[in-house]
Amino acid sequence: MLRSSMEPSIESKLTVYFDEPFWVGVFEKLDGKRLSACKVVFGAEPTDAQIYAFILRYFNQLRFSPPVKTEIKQKADNPKRRQRNAHKQLEKSGVGTKSQQALQKQYEENKLERKQRSHEQREAEKLLQFELKQQKRKEKHRGH
């Protein structure tokens, strides 16, 4: 099957770093010009085999953040330059700013969902209390 250059490609990247006191992994998914991220806390320092097993088992269950538009830099075709860039990225620790924005957006959405859920639960509890109070009032006047 031939792939045209117009089709967007999907790239994934995993950055594992130590964020006191745990080891954290940030999955970045680049789909065309949109970047989504997902943060995973590993706890103790994971081995390469553990990371690979985690990816195979749980990658489909990860909840990625909503996509954030990003600029795509032109890739160098020179293999030495690619290798140099790979070494630079390995030396760099931490998460890219676009990933941080995506994770922050996901955090805000989760916060809104929690707020709405707790509000609905409080309203349901108030309604239940009101109905119990009404029923109790009716029972008091039942004998008269």
Report strand %.
15-25%
Low-confidence stretches: none
| Alpha carbon gap, first and last residue | 85 Å
Describe the global form: elongated
Arithmetic mean of pLDDT: 82
> Helix amount, in percent?
40-55%
Write the element-wise H/E pattern from the N-terminal end onward.
EEEHEHH
Give a quick account of the main beta sheet: strands, pairing sense, barrel closure: 4 strands, antiparallel
Radius of gyration: 25 Å
Structural class by helix and strand composition: alpha+beta
Query: Major sheet: order of its strands?
Result: 1-2-3-4
- Please count the beta strands (DSSP E, at least 2 residues each): 4
Q: How many alpha or pi helices?
A: 3
In words, what does this structure look like?
The protein is of the alpha+beta class and 144 residues long. A four-stranded antiparallel β-sheet has the order 1-2-3-4. The longest helix is centred in the C-terminal third of the chain and has 44 residues. It is elongated. The N and C termini lie far apart (85 Å).
Question: In a nutshell, what does this entry contain?
Answer:
It is built from 3 helices and 4 strands. It is of the alpha+beta class and 144 residues long.
Structural key phrases:
144 residues; 4-stranded antiparallel sheet
Topology:
Layout: E1 10-19, E2 22-31, E3 34-43, H1 48-58, E4 68-69, H2 79-91, H3 97-140
Antiparallel strand pairs: 1-2, 2-3, 3-4
